[in-house]
């Protein structure tokens, strides 16, 4: 009888540990792949929240001294259309797409490059270089 109580106690403790670890993993979104390079200082949870808060196009996610990051919930083709529309609103004319990169030009012939990366199968990250 004493042994079965110890076994039940150990099983309950193991289940509790598994539950706590599971909640931590789910809450921190650590099961998602690493964020693209250049997005240091922001967590996966914040990125997902920003993208889900704005389902109507590109969501601003992060800014550093080199670039601005935007996220899109969907495929790369649809995200590219939103990107082109956003850049054209800011006075940049779409010139060409080279793989996952987009090249824009303004009236003064300056160029701006945007790189895209599928973060997961549902999310695209766009790095708009300054």
Automatic annotation (TrEMBL):
Keywords: Membrane, Transmembrane, Transmembrane helix. The chain crosses the membrane at residues 7-26. This is Uncharacterized protein. It comes from Paenibacillus mendelii.
């Amino acid at each position: 009888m004493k042994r079965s109580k110890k076994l039940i106690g150990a099983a309950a403790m193991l289940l509790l540990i598994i539950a706590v670890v599971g909640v931590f993993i789910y809450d921190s979104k650590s099961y998602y792949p690493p964020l693209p390079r250049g997005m240091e200082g922001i967590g996966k949870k914040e990125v997902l929240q920003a993208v889900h808060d704005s389902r109507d196009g590109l969501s601003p996610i992060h800014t550093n001294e080199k670039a601005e990051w935007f996220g899109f919930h969907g495929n790369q083709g649809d995200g590219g259309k939103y990107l082109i529309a956003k850049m054209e609103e800011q006075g940049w004319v779409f010139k060409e797409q080279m793989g996952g990169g987009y090249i824009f030009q303004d009236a003064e012939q300056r160029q701006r490059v945007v790189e895209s990366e599928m973060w997961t199968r549902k999310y695209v990250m766009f790095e708009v270089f300054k």
